[in-house]
């Protein structure tokens, strides 16, 4: 399948995927606080709380291109670009995870450990049998988890060693990851992946127990879309994005239907600053990073 993988950029020409099972937008538009532009297929944003700055990965080419053109940018909390090409020479970089002074990057088939104060790559970990590394999350104990969408796999970086932690078709082509206490939350792309990267069945939110690696649906009987990013809202809720249709889902409670907000298609791997109620949203197909305030 990897040989037939098309660039995610080509998906802009596809009609937006919809499903009778997915929710319809019922909420007012989000408040756009600021927008930073001029990026090249921005994929993942993360808030570096220690330094009060935003880090943003840009693929700068095909989603599976090992072209050395990808980069990471630094922005202020207000969306001003501090340094567009802070770290360069990457291969379609996607997910980001911050732990202390370390930035972990999913760089196609390898994981980079970058020293944030200096911007230098401290370690490069080659992921065994990797096809398409996607998102990164860091658990409270410092273990780093990385999804591989095409291999239906989750890796773990533990005590300086990168290992295959879980492989299962039950992951439904895992995209976004979020470590939450004793579990991993997984934003699944969907089931029955086609050569054009569409799916016959939309993706769901899933959870994996860290203790025994048990996989289950986080919300029963609720496929949402081709999910990309997932994070918590700083309280008891969750946020997730539908990349293909351009949607933000906000679950205040897992027992109720989510609030759904319309966004541009290509809305990718988000982060959230709860103190400001601010969603950091890479808009891949527009080359922008937008900040939206939740109502």
UniProtKB/TrEMBL annotation:
Species the sequence originates in: Hahella chejuensis (strain KCTC 2396)
Signal sequence, start to end: 1-18
Keywords on record: Signal
Protein name, per record: Periplasmic ATP/GTP-binding protein
InterPro entries to which the protein is assigned, alphabetical: 6-blade_b-propeller_TolB-like
